[in-house]
Amino acid sequence: MESTLQNPATVAARTTPKATTIGYWIVTALFCLQMSFTAYAQLRLPEVAQAFTHLGFPDYFRVELSWAKLLGVVLMLAPVPARLKEWAYAGFGINIASALIAHLAVGDGPEAWGFAVATGVLWGLSYFFWRRLQATPTSA
Fold first, then answer.
1. For residue 136, what pLDDT is reported?
2. What pLDDT, in 10s, does the model give residues 45-78?
3. How far is 74 from 78, CA to CA, in rounded Å?
4. Those residues with Cβ within 8 angstroms of residue 6's Cβ, 6 or more apart along the chain or in another chain
5. CA 56 → CA 19, 26, 99, 131, 138, distances in Å?
6. Residue 54 DSSP SS3
7. For the chain, how big is the Rg over CA atoms in Å?
8. Residue segments in the chain with a per-residue pLDDT below the cut of 70
9. Are 117 and 15 within 8 A, CB to CB?
10. What distance in Å separates the CA atoms of residue 108 and residue 13, rounded to the nearest whole number?
11. CB neighbours (10 Å) of residue 56?
């Protein structure tokens, strides 16, 4: 009897570079929009400033984090060397994990940390597609 399960290597090989590129840009655009919105909210909305106080962070950290997010968004969208994109992905990963830990540490519910989880999913998908694009031969 022949197995009906597909070999993951053959499934991955069937994904075209064009489909990977489209997937990358859709997920990355959504992720960058979310990061840009949170940076804006951290700089301009008093409720978000209060949330940072609730989490125990100093006010200057909120401002630093916002500018770091905006820099990361630029690096994600601009044609920069791969090493800079890796650093941007690493910074966002640390930021998202830290946000989740901070909310859980103060006992916040899913209404507070759910946004970090959803953003983390977009971050992971964007990184996955980006790595797939990096592995795709450029001559194809």
1. 79
2. 999 999 999 999 999 999 999 999 999 999 999 9
3. 6
4. none
5. 43, 34, 12, 35, 47
6. helix
7. 18
8. 1-15, 138-140
9. no
10. 43
11. 10
